[in-house]
Structures are given as C-alpha cells and as structure tokens.
Amino acid sequence: MIFEIVKSAGIAHKSYFIGSKGAAAVIDPRRDCDIYLKLAEKNNLKIEHIFETHRNEDYTIGSLELSEIVGAEIHHSNKLNFAYGTPAKNGDKSKIGSLILEVFETPGHTDDSISIKLKDIEVSKDIYMVFTGDTLFTGEVGRCDLYGEEEIPKMAKNLYESIFQKILPLGDEVIVCPAHGSGSVCGADIREQEFTTVGYEKKTNSMLKKSRKDFVEYKINEKLYTPPYFRKMENNNVKGPKLLCKLPYLKPLSMDEVKWFLENDAQIVDVRNPTDFAGGHIPGTLNIWREGLPAFAGWFLNYEQPIIVVENKNNFMDEINRFLIRLGYDNIYGHLSGGFPVWFKGAGAVETLRTWSVHDLKKKLEEEPKDESLFLLDVRKEKDWIEGHIEGSHNVYVGLLKDHLEEVPRNKHVVVYCDAGYKASIAASLLKMNGYENATNVLGSMKAWKKAGYPVTKN
C-alpha cells in the first residue's frame, strides 16, 4: 500500500494519496494538483478515484482539475446537488488494488459530510484507516455553525451521532486521517499532530468525553470566525471551479504599470515581513506577510479587481501563486518586476509605518496612563483577548476590522498589537489605507510583552 499526506500550508489542509497494485485514489485534492500526478508517476500508479469528504469551505477543491487530466471518477455525497461527479451513499465501495474504500455518511459539519473506511484485504478484513474530513480532527471536532446560528443545535446533534455512533465504534486501533491540521479555521483548536487513532482520541480529545447534552451545549456557545471568502469557496465547490489546466502566469510589471494599477483600484498586496513593510512601502498597499497569505487573503482580497503582488526579490512567486489559486483567486494579475527595491530606486513614493517595541509601549502607558490621545487596539481573536490582554486595550479581530472601522477613532494615535506583530501589521496597513495617518505596530506584541514580564489583564 502506498500512502502519502499532501499538506497545504497556511490553511492547514490535508489531502491523501493512496495506492495499490497499479491503481490510486486521492481524497480531498487541492486545486494545484501536479503533486498527485508526480506521486502517481513516481509509484507507477493510475489515479482512478477521487473522493470529496464534503463541500469544502476554506479552499477550492481540485477534483475537476485532477479528473480532467487523469480521467478519474469523482465521488461525493448525494445529499447536495453537485454539478459534477458521482453521488455516493452509505455502503458504496470502490476498489484499488487490494484496497477497499467504503463511504459512510457522517453529517454534522455539513449535511453532505461523508467519511471513508479503508481496508487492505490482502492483509486483513479489518478496517485499517478512516478518512474523516472535517468531522473528527486530532484533539477537536468539526465546526457546526456554517448554516447559521439557528441550525447549530441540529448540526451539533448530527455531529455527535456521526462521531459516537459511526466513527468511534470502528475500533480503537483504526487510524484517523482528518482533512485539516493545527491552524485550520474548520476547527477551534486542532492539535498539532500528523494523524491519530480512534483509541487515542477517545483518551485525549476533550470533546469525546462530553455527554450528548454537554457536547451540543458547547457547540451552541462556541464562537468561531467565518471569513467572507467561504461563500466563494462553497459556490466553487458545488458548481465546480474554472479549470486551470496550468498555473496562471504572473506578469512582471514595471513601476509605471504598477502605478497605473494602483490608480485604477487594483489590489496591491505587499507580502514582505512587517519590519520590511514598516521601513518603506508603496502608499496605499496592504501588508500580508507571505506565509500568512493562505490564512488572511480571504478576509481582505476580492475576486473582481486584479491582484498585484509586491515582494523583495520575487523568489517566492510560485508559492504565492499557489497560495492564492487554492483560495480561488483567478484574478491574480502580476507582480512588481524586480521587487520593492526597483520601486524606491526608481524614485517611487514611499511611506513608512511607525513601530514600537513592547518597552516603548510600556513606557508610554506608564508616563501617560490616562492619555486619551492613544487608542490601544488588540486584533487577536476574542477568545485570546479574554484569556489575557494589555489593560486598556480594545478588541477587534483583524479579519473583521475593515467592517468595524467605526469602532476605531480617527483622531487618535492607534497602537496595534496581536500575537507577534504580523497580524498587527495587516491591521495597521489597512488603517493607513483608510486614512488613519497615526498608526503604530507593536513588534513582538503579546509574545514579547509576556516575555518581558509585563502585566496581563484577564476578562
């Protein structure tokens, strides 16, 4: 048996490539699907089946893209009216070599959620693995709020039954392969662990120690953020996204071309680190550090206006391209040729962003503890703010900030902090784009504040 985990950074997505005796299957493929072709070629396998565990919300599925190339059959739930593929129901089986893949319905995260049992009948008739999609994770279970607040009780009950009546009875020794790892927005607090087993989760997953009543109550009270790009992903994954055939070419753009795009409402995203951005950047640009693109682009970038990327030396354009393509951004247009150094060497207009250390912030708060000209903005998740924050701070999650600018006074010095200064740089750049001239990013943010031994207030 051939088994490979294909991980997509940032969105913490996991797809799976499995094969036996010349045949292979892929579970929840990503849109840039060349990795599966390479695995098939390396192992001399033909991809015959593609499984989708549910209508994914956080990335554009690559099933159609992969099927177009290899001719594989796509399987997904019959509980949703997909515009492509083959509807699957409880008990449907597919064979690849000595492997048997059996679908069983596990609603709760979504109505169309399915899981897939795997047996290697050449070895044993027992179940070896289960691919659980977004139903059961390592240390966590799937979110239940995607259909709206009023549907959470029903979805939570369904999720509980799917886990306790269908997955856990498979056997403690069964390996659990979820669709996401730590950092995914599809679960509140997924453990950083490659995969797990049914027995290990029964012992270590706090959600599996709850009664049905407590499980449902917990899910009703759970507060999770829903990025606006989810709607686009849901539409893509039901109707089928546009076929790429190959990764789009990011055009190298001259300074004058970038200036034109900037004047014509293009989306210019600077993917350098916060310190580089603070030292100098093109006025009116948004800063999302490169590794943060998969997690945060969907909060701020739209799907209509062209996206232009600014980097330092343009060494990571392929990676950036893939990050955005996985989120369905077919409006990626190009990048500043030669990177930001070309801009300032060419006498382009440059803005800076003020930065403070945590010591600067502490000194300012001690000198003028009641200074009404300073507005301390914490852009971490509300849960993190409640667990510990700097006294006097106001909390607006970075992803929600553009729709809550009215909560941030324009006539004050806005000092922004987060976990380490990266999300704070997104927020500060967004504020500057919206006319807030006096914004400061606290480098190191809460991580450095705690390291320095400065006081933390709990709510």
UniProtKB/TrEMBL annotation:
It comes from the Archaea. Pfam families: Lactamase_B, Rhodanese. InterPro entries: Metallo-B-lactamas (IPR001279), Mito_Persulfide_Diox (IPR051682), POD-like_MBL-fold (IPR044528), Rhodanese-like_dom (IPR001763), Rhodanese-like_dom_sf (IPR036873), RibonucZ/Hydroxyglut_hydro (IPR036866). GO terms for molecular function: metal ion binding; sulfur dioxygenase activity. Residues 262-352, 370-458 form the Rhodanese domain. Keywords: Metal-binding. GO terms for biological process: glutathione metabolic process; hydrogen sulfide metabolic process. This is Rhodanese-like protein. It comes from Methanobacterium paludis (strain DSM 25820 / JCM 18151 / SWAN1).
